[in-house]
Design a protein that fits this description.
Elements lengths: L1 E2 L8 H12 L4 E4 L4 E4 L5 H11 L8 E3 L3 H7 L4 H10 L4 E6 L14 E5 L4 H10 L3 E5 L11 H8 L5 E3 L10 E4 L6 E4 L7 H4 L1
Parallel strand pairs: 1-8, 2-8, 4-6, 5-9
Antiparallel strand pairs: 2-3, 3-7, 4-7, 5-6, 9-10
Length: about 200
Amino acid sequence: MIVEWNPERPKKKITDLIVGAWQEGGIIAYPTDTYYGIGCDLFNIKSIRKLYAMKRLDEKSRLSIICRDMKDISVYAVLTDFSFDIVKWYLPGPFTFVLKARKIIPKLLMTDRKEVGVRIPSHPVPVGITNLCGRPIINTSARIAGGDIISDPRQIEKTFGKNVSLIVDGGILGGLPSTVVRLADDTVEVLREGKGALSDRFSG
């Protein structure tokens, strides 16, 4: 089901649909400041495994999480003075920062180094969904593993069918993915170049 939802002027009926889908372990697609993301409850392991399966994704591939704010990030990942300054400088924005995960993060989402990718997109919809749910949401791109990222919500619906409970329509989205930066050892390591650009202040 494709719906329109503006968290700044939310319609109760659609808001209730989003919350209901979430509470029932559903998977939701939503626009971000890069591509469409697909996510589910951070602590619903059954839904996370379904997400891996519908994307045909190896469970060794780690998914990131979308947080509401810096305080939210600090609950789920370790922010040192070094990483805090950088993350605060660039978020909200098109970046995914890889940090040491706290024990609250399900092991399925941790890398072998016990790290997790965190995001705060500069788009009201995914952050609005985290506010509704009261905790971070899983984030992965809307595509089948090895395929192109899907930019049209109608194509997302056609590709994933009933595996996706709701799709929040954000129009056609294209461009570049988020820039992925690892900060876990208090060093800056760019793992993927994307939409976000690091300034010389931090890139060295």
